[in-house]
Request: fold
Amino acid sequence: MSATTVLDWGLGLAQGMLVLAMALAAWRMLRGPRAQDRILGLDTLYLNGMLAIVVHGMRTGSGLYFEAALILGMIGFTATVALAKFLMQGEVIQ
Amino acid sequence: MSRILRPFLPYPLLSVGLAGTWLLLNAPLSPGSAVLALLVGLTVPAVMRALRPPAVRVRAPGTLARLLVVVLYDMVRSNIDVGRIILGLRRGTRRTGFVAIPLDLREPFGLAVLAIILTATPGTLWVRYDSGTGRLLLHVLDYTDGDEWVRRVKDRYERPLMQIFGRGNSA
Amino acid sequence: MSGADLPAWAAWLVVALAIAGAGVSLTGALGLVRLRTFYERVHAPTLGATLGMALILTSSMVLLSLLEGRLVLRDALIGVFLTITTPVTLLLLARAAAQRDRHEGNPGAPPEI
Reply:
């Protein structure tokens, strides 16, 4: 097998596994049962999505996807922190 | 650090970190990006001075290196442990529970690093920390009776961290 | 598709690292489905955020370094970023959950310290 075939199939498999992980995280996000479970699902979805972008960047061989992955990671962090903060202060009387 | 350098380098670690990040982002290394990295490393910490973050002094670099190795080893091992629990490969009954750990570490930076270590080793989760009593509440995925977890956290992580970010003359 | 001029061992190494990392991440996401209580589930994503992330980023750095013929360490920045942010998100989430559970008097609520 040539190096190209190995890379193409292997990285494709890794991408598929990460997409499956995203699907599982999305299931937890939709299923709940409570708000903190949904936020946890969203955080995992972001994380695996970011890793999937990194692997996609490897498949195309360009470094352009690095910025996309970094930005997705930052957005995921901000979103999760904001949601968790809301959970602490938006519903529970302080 | 000498008194002459202090106005220019209020936070040397921050300067090094910023310059390094800049160089990594702008690889391959060229003279232009090196000059810019130097500028970023010298000017941005001066802006940070307005926020007055407490200065961090790292002592005992040897301990720091040893701690890093311990944490890397624990990270891999606990990843495997938690993976086995999730996949149902572990026999016997498993309990989860909360563990309260009385910490002697008070340095904010040391506590932050401890939080990173405990998160980086799956199976332990930092739930809350009371800065008044110094008690830390952990949730552990593999609960054992007795003070095994307390000893593990204190011996493996807290003691080296206290040596590295020792209290006292950290002005 | 890239990598035509790559030696075979390098391709296998890159692929092995990437698949191992994706496997660890997938195990973590599976834990999100399989574990029973919220406090157990919070442990699950850390698998992807630690070892899974490290393996995939190493794989990416190895591949890009070989392709470009120089050391490419840029992806390590993602690792540094994730290492710093994951404790913050999980800590806040656990605290929010603990606060809600205690407020509602749920049986699984963490004890007072």
In short: The radius of gyration of chain B is 20 Å.
